[in-house]
Write a structure and sequence with these properties.
The complex is a heterodimer of chains A (245) and B (365).
Chain A lengths: L23 H14 L6 E5 L7 H4 L3 E4 L5 H11 L4 E7 H7 L1 H9 L5 E6 L29 H4 L5 H6 L4 E8 L3 H19 L4 E7 L3 H4 L3 H15 L3 E5 L2
Parallel strand pairs in A: 1-2, 1-3, 3-4, 4-6, 5-6
Antiparallel strand pairs in A: 5-7
Helix pairs in contact in A: 1-8, 4-5
Chain B lengths: L11 E6 H11 L4 E4 L6 H10 L6 E4 L3 H13 L4 E5 L1 H6 L1 H10 L4 E6 L15 H6 L8 E4 L3 H18 L3 E6 H5 L1 E6 L38 H22 L2 E4 L6 E4 L4 H14 L4 E6 L1 E3 L3 H11 L3 E6 L4 H9 L6 E6 L7 H11 L1
Parallel strand pairs in B: 2-3, 2-4, 4-5, 5-7, 6-7, 10-11, 10-13, 13-14
Antiparallel strand pairs in B: 1-8, 6-12, 9-11
Classes of the chains: A alpha/beta (245), B alpha/beta (365).
Chain lengths: 245, 365
C-alpha cells in the first residue's frame, strides 16, 4: 500500500479536543506542514493563546509557551529579540488579538517585530461560551448580544488585516479562509509566505484565517462552512493586503 | 432608566446558578449598567444580564478588556449611575488598576469576583486564591470592603448589600465568590429589597452637576494625583481614619459553637460550609470543635475572632482554605499577639470537603 499522507512531524500524536467541524485542527496541521516542509521544526518557538486553542502546545511537536490573554505579541517580542535566529509565531483568536490584545498587536506591527501571527477569526469567543467578539458581524447573535449585534450599541466589526496593513512595520498581511480545499491550499501558501517574510527579516507578518465555530454559532459542521462563505467573506474579503518587497 | 421598577415581585423560591443570582440581585438592587469582558467563571453574569437588562431598561457594554471594563465603571459611577462589573482571575489582576483609582477617588464601584485557579491563567474552575488581590491589590492601602459569600442566598443578599455599601461609604466594594458558587445551582429566595425593608441607597452624580459654572457652582475637578508628598499623605490618612471609623458598622462574621471549643476551624466562603459540617461530625464523635468565618475579609473581624479564642480557651486553630495561605496571612496579621497554636489545611485551587477537615483535626489532637 502506498502512503499518500502522514502526520506532519511538527504535530504530536495527541488527539485534538476540538468540537466537530471546528477548523482549528486544519490550521494546526497547516502550520505543522509548513514548518516540516521549510525544515524549521526545531528552530521554531510557538506562542500559544488562551481560549479553545489554549492546549495547542499539546499538539505541536516543537517548543511552545503560553501567553496570558491578549499578550502573545508582547511575549513573542521578548522571545524573538533575545533569540533572533528562531522562527517565532503567535496563534491567536479574535477576542485575544482584536479586543484584550489590541494594544499589543498594533504595537508589535508598528515596531515591525519580526514575528508571524496566525490570527484565527471565527467572530466569537469560543471557550468562554460564545460571547460577542470584536469581529462579530452586525446582527449576529451571541451570548452577550442575545438580540443580535447592533451598531448603535456595540459599533462595528474589526477588520484587522486592513487595519494592520496600514502600519509601516507590517511586511506581509493577508486574509485567508479554510472553508473549502482550494482556500485551505491558499492558506497554507500564505502561512509559508509569512514565515518566509520573517526568515528574511522583513518585519511583522500576519495571516488572518476565517474559521468556524459550529458549537457557538449553533450550526452543523457543513452549515458552518456555508455560513462562513455567505456571511464572513463578504464583510472580510480574502486576499493579500500588504506585501513588502 | 427604570431602576425603581419591581423586578421580582412576590418573594419567590428559585433554583439558580450563582451567576444568575448576581444578575437578578443586581437588577433588584436597581443597577443601571454593567460593563464586562469575557472571563470564566463569571461569564453567565453577562449572559443573563444582556438577556434581562433591556427588559428593565438597563444597559450593557462589552469592553475590549478588563482594564477598560473597570475604568468605564469608574466613569459611570462618577456620572451618578449605579454601574458594576464582574470578573475573575487574570481579569481581576487587570482590574486592579481601575480598582486602585476607585480607592483613590472613593468611587462607589461594586464588582463581583468569581475566583478561579491561579497564578496567571491557572484553571477556569475554582479557588480562593484571589483573597490577597481583592483585599489588598493595587498600589494602595486596601481601603476596600470585601464580602466573602458561602451560599447562593448570600450571593443574592450581598449583591444587593454591596451596591448599598459602595454608595453609602464610597469605598470600592467587592463580592468575593468562586467558580463553584458561580456555576452550580442551589435554591434561594429572591425578593425585591423594599419587600424586606431594605432601603436602597440613592446614587448621585459627581460630575455634570446642575447649575452654571462660575455662577452658582464651582467646576468639579476630581483628581487622583497630587503634586506634593504631604497632600497625598493627608488624603490617605483621612481615608484610613474614615475606614477605621466605619469598620465596626461593616464587620460581619459567623461563629459556630466556639463557646466551649477546644479547637477552632477558621475558613471563609464555601469552605466554611465544609467547616460547619466538620464541626457537626466531630461533635458527634465527642470532639469539641467550633468554627469561625469572616464574612467581611476587609474589614476583618479581628476583635470578634480574638473574643472567640478568649472565651473558648481553645488552644488550637485550624485555618482551612483553597489557597496556599492567603487567609492564613490575613488572619495572622489581624490577630498578632495571640498565642493559640495555628495549623493549616491549604489546598490551592482545589475544593475542601468536611472529610478533609475532620482528618486534619484528628491529626492535630
Amino acid at each position: 500500500m502506498k502512503v499518500v499522507a502522514t502526520r506532519p512531524e511538527s504535530l504530536t500524536e495527541e488527539k485534538f479536543h476540538y468540537c466537530p467541524g471546528c477548523t482549528h485542527g486544519i490550521i494546526h496541521r497547516l502550520i505543522a506542514e509548513c514548518l516540516d516542509e521549510m525544515n524549521l521544526r526545531e528552530q521554531t518557538i510557538g506562542i500559544c493563546p488562551v481560549g479553545c486553542s489554549v492546549l495547542a502546545y499539546d499538539y505541536f511537536n516543537f517548543d511552545t509557551l503560553e501567553a496570558a490573554h491578549g499578550r502573545a505579541p508582547a511575549i513573542a517580542t521578548g522571545v524573538k529579540r533575545m533569540l533572533p535566529d528562531r522562527c517565532v509565531f503567535t496563534y491567536q483568536g479574535d477576542g485575544d488579538l482584536a479586543s484584550i490584545g489590541m494594544g499589543e498587536i498594533v504595537h508589535a506591527s508598528l515596531r515591525g517585530e519580526n514575528i508571524t501571527v496566525i490570527f484565527v477569526n471565527n467572530t466569537i469567543y469560543g471557550m468562554t461560551g460564545g460571547q460577542m467578539a470584536p469581529t462579530t458581524l452586525i446582527g449576529q447573535v451571541t451570548t452577550t448580544s442575545p438580540y443580535g449585534r447592533k451598531v448603535e450599541q456595540a459599533g462595528y466589526p474589526a477588520k484587522m488585516a486592513e487595519l494592520l496593513s496600514q502600519n509601516e512595520g507590517s511586511a506581509y498581511i493577508c486574509r485567508m479562509a479554510v472553508n473549502n480545499p482550494a482556500n485551505v491550499n491558499r492558506t497554507k501558501k500564505a502561512i509559508k509566505k509569512a514565515i518566509q517574510t520573517q526568515l528574511e527579516g522583513k518585519g511583522f507578518s500576519m495571516v488572518e484565517i476565517l474559521s468556524t465555530c459550529p458549537t457557538n454559532w449553533g450550526l452543523s459542521s457543513i452549515e458552518a462552512l456555508k455560513w462562513l462563505e455567505h456571511n464572513m467573506i463578504p464583510y472580510y474579503p480574502l486576499g493579500e493586503f500588504k506585501v513588502k518587497d | 432608566m427604570q431602576a425603581n421598577v419591581k423586578v421580582v415581585g412576590d418573594t419567590k423560591k428559585s433554583f439558580l446558578t450563582g451567576n444568575e443570582a448576581v444578575t437578578w440581585a443586581a437588577l433588584a438592587a436597581g443597577a443601571e449598567m454593567m460593563f464586562g469582558y469575557p472571563i470564566t467563571p463569571q461569564n453567565e453574569v453577562m449572559h443573563y444580564w444582556t438577556r434581562l437588562a433591556p427588559k428593565y431598561g438597563r444597559g450593557f457594554l462589552q469592553t475590549e478588556d478588563e482594564i477598560s471594563a473597570g475604568f468605564t465603571v469608574c466613569g459611570a459611577v462618577q456620572a451618578g449611575t449605579k454601574a458594576f462589573t464582574a470578573t475573575a482571575g487574570p481579569g481581576n489582576v487587570l482590574m486592579q488598576e481601575p480598582f486602585g483609582m476607585a480607592e483613590a477617588m472613593r468611587l462607589p464601584l461594586f464588582a463581583v469576583i468569581q475566583q478561579r485557579g491561579g497564578p496567571s491563567s491557572g484553571t477556569v474552575i475554582y479557588s480562593q486564591q484571589e483573597v490577597a488581590l481583592t483585599t489588598y491589590g493595587g498600589n494602595g492601602e486596601g481601603h476596600r470592603i470585601v464580602y466573602s459569600t458561602a451560599t447562593h442566598q448570600e450571593i443574592y443578599d450581598y449583591t444587593i448589600k454591596g451596591f448599598n455599601t459602595a454608595w453609602k461609604y464610597r469605598f470600592p466594594t467587592f463580592l468575593l465568590g468562586d467558580g463553584y458558587q458561580a456555576k452550580m445551582r442551589e435554591p434561594l429566595e429572591m425578593y425585591d429589597p423594599e419587600e424586606r425593608g431594605i432601603e436602597i441607597v440613592p446614587t448621585y452624580p459627581l460630575l455634570g452637576l446642575e447649575g452654571h459654572i462660575g455662577e452658582n457652582r464651582e467646576p468639579q475637578h476630581l483628581c487622583n494625583i497630587y503634586s506634593l508628598e504631604e497632600e497625598l499623605y493627608d488624603v490617605v490618612l483621612r481615608f484610613a481614619e474614615e475606614y477605621e471609623k466605619i469598620s465596626p458598622e461593616l464587620i460581619e462574621y459567623k461563629e459556630n459553637q466556639c463557646d466551649d471549643a477546644d479547637i477552632i476551624i477558621l475558613s471563609h466562603g464555601v469552605v466554611s460550609r465544609a467547616a460547619d459540617d466538620a464541626v457537626k461530625a466531630l461533635r458527634a464523635q465527642g470532639i469539641k470543635a467550633g468554627s469561625f468565618r469572616p464574612i467581611t475579609l476587609r474589614p476583618f473581624p479581628q476583635a470578634q475572632l480574638r473574643e472567640a479564642i478568649a472565651k473558648s480557651g481553645a488552644k488550637k486553630m485550624l485555618i482551612a482554605e483553597s489557597a496556599y495561605g492567603q487567609l492564613d496571612r490575613l488572619t495572622k496579621q489581624e490577630i498578632y499577639g495571640e498565642t493559640i497554636k495555628i495549623e493549616n489545611l491549604f489546598k490551592p485551587g482545589v475544593g475542601i470537603i468536611d472529610y478533609d477537615i475532620i482528618n486534619k483535626i484528628k491529626s492535630m489532637l
